[in-house]
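Weekly puzzle thread! Below is a chain. First person to post its structure in token form gets bragging rights.
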Amino acid sequence: MEKNILAYFKSPEEAEVAANKLQALRAVEVSIDRFSKYPGDGIEHRENPRTGDFASLATLSLDADISAKSPGILMAAGTDASGMSDGGGAHVTGRDILLTAVVDESVHHQALRVVEEAGGML
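Winning reply:
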């Protein structure tokens, strides 16, 4: 039997440490990805807010790829776009790196400890 692990990290380096240790435990599969609630891969050029030539506040502060006015307004209304976020109560803020692993059931609990010791949140 195999077990799945989904863990959230604050940096790719933290996730890499865990991934290397999971590989040593003979993990079947390990992957590391960055995710975001905002669309696109970010802007590829610098924006000048003084010229007014940008799609939304979310383009500037969240590096979001805005394709229409309405989503840009909605995203800019969020506390994370304005800088007024309190960081959240569950310590989730800043954890935008997802480590996904498949391990044998016999090492599952050990793998969970490895992930937590590397700074991952399960």
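Puzzle host: Confirmed. Bonus trivia for everyone else. The longest strand covers residues 2-9.
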